[in-house]
Write a structure and sequence with these properties.
Blueprint (H helix, E strand, L loop, with lengths): L2 H30 L7 E9 L4 H15 L11 E5 L2 E3 L1 H6 L7 E3 L6 H12 L3 E5 L7 H8 L3 H8 L29 H19 L5 E2 L8 H9 L4 E4 L2 E2 L14 E2 L11 E4 L2 E2 L8 H13 L4 E6 L1 H4 L2 H21 L4 E2 L2 H8 L11 H14 L4 H7 L1 H14 L1
Helix pairs in contact: 2-4, 7-8, 9-11, 13-15
Length: 403
């Protein structure tokens, strides 16, 4: 080999060796992460639960909208509902001077319209239920704070109070945030809470969801083990796991980075939701289209995180949010004719099914996807730039695309 060829070859080999030595675990995770052969889009909407009858009417409107948007296989667009089965019974709690906890749950007659709308949407294939807690807080933490906090007592006194209005730290169900930094919950109490939640799900819907969404993405191994014991197979994440709250109430640094189909405690597997669609905060369909294009290029699914509050705010905001959701999904179908609409459990099953038509099997294509993932991975940015691979790998990707 002439010196002219040897030098760049040696440099490239050394650069790749440096990348492997510095980030071997990240590279292995990115390679083993499933690669989708077609775009997949799921709308994931959290916080649905007890509320006024108007919430049930909005769920019916959402179901009609989704049923009218179909992929190339004729499947309707799907919205997963992160269901919160109960909320604090403020009147009863205040009557006891915050001495004990009482809750109001979806099995009460006043919530029949909401539950029926959820059931109807599931039967039509446009809704899929996910576990989002028996309530959107840890009861003992809420009680402890309410005894000392007039604003929390005012929240409890409001019969129309929504969990979205709670302080962010208290919305983290799976830690004790009464004092901060937060502390871990006893595993026995976690297991009892998960068991109680599963029993109420079964009573209301004759089934227990196999997908769980941690409130504010704060949870730990004890929660995963309890979920797994009660039938959870997939945990929705934002690509990170947070395990507590800081003294200021913010999220502690992430304890773990996550990619699709990695395994957690008890054998649960992860699905990553890292795109956002909150119309009431100014998000528009164009941002959805960009998110789908970016994730499709990386052979990843697009799970759009949205929340109940977009659709139950003032009538004008709710109408605008509904219209923007329709525009976003219709635009996805036009821009990505091969798009598939699934629910999260179906996506998880596809990840675990060798030979699934949703998965990419060609090694050359997978190699190109792997290199694009490297270039998009924030943890690798500095090493790629210093080694020069940041400028060379795009050329390799283009070469693979022409082969």
């Amino acid at each position: 080999m002439s010196l002219l060829l040897f030098v760049p070859f040696a440099w490239f080999a050394a650069a790749c060796g440096l990348l492997w030595l510095s980030h071997s675990r990240v590279l292995a995770r990115l390679w083993h992460e499933p690669a989708l052969a077609v775009p997949v889009v799921i709308v994931e909407s959290d916080d649905w639960g007890p509320g006024p009858a108007a919430d049930g009417e909005m769920l019916e409107r959402l179901a009609r909208l989704l049923a009218g948007i179909r992929d190339a296989d004729g499947a309707a667009a799907v919205m997963t509902l992160g269901v919160v089965l109960g909320k604090p019974d403020g009147a009863a709690i205040l009557a006891d001077d915050c001495g004990s906890y009482r809750r109001s749950t979806l099995d009460e007659p006043r919530y029949t319209g909401i539950v029926q709308a959820m059931r109807n949407g599931c039967a039509a294939g446009v809704f899929a239920l996910q576990r989002h807690g028996l309530e959107h807080c840890w009861p003992a933490s809420l009680l402890a704070c309410a005894r000392q906090n007039a604003a929390l007592r005012a929240w409890l006194a409001d019969p129309d109070a929504r969990s979205e209005a709670l302080p962010s730290a208290l919305q983290s169900r799976w830690v004790d945030a009464a004092e901060r930094p937060s502390s871990r919950l006893p595993e026995g109490e976690i297991r009892a809470a998960v068991t109680e939640e599963a029993a109420l799900f079964c009573c209301l819907f004759a089934d227990v969801p196999t997908v769980a969404v941690p409130n504010t993405f704060v949870w730990d191994d004890a929660v995963e083990r309890a979920w797994a014991e009660s039938g959870v197979r997939w945990v929705v994440t934002c690509g990170r796991r947070y395990e507590g709250r800081t003294a200021e109430g913010g999220l502690q640094p992430a304890a773990r980075r996550i990619v699709n189909d990695e395994t957690g405690a008890g054998g649960v597997r992860y699905v990553v939701r890292d795109a956002y669609f909150e119309p009431m905060r100014g998000h528009r369909a164009e941002q959805v289209w960009q998110a789908v294009a970016e994730r499709t290029a990386l052979a990843r699914p697009t799970l759009l995180e949205t929340h109940r509050e977009n659709f139950i705010a003032s009538p004008d905001i709710a109408r605008a949010s509904l219209a923007e959701l329709g525009r976003a999904l219709e635009g996805v179908c036009r821009r990505h004719p091969a798009v598939r609409f699934l629910d999260t459990a179906q996506l998880g099953e596809a990840f675990r099914t060798p030979g699934s038509p949703l998965l990419m099997t060609d090694t050359r294509q997978r190699a190109g996807v792997f290199l694009r993932r490297l270039l998009a991975e924030p943890d690798l940015s500095r090493t790629l730039k210093l080694s020069g691979l940041r400028f060379v790998l795009p050329l390799v990707v283009r070469m693979l695309g022409r082969m």
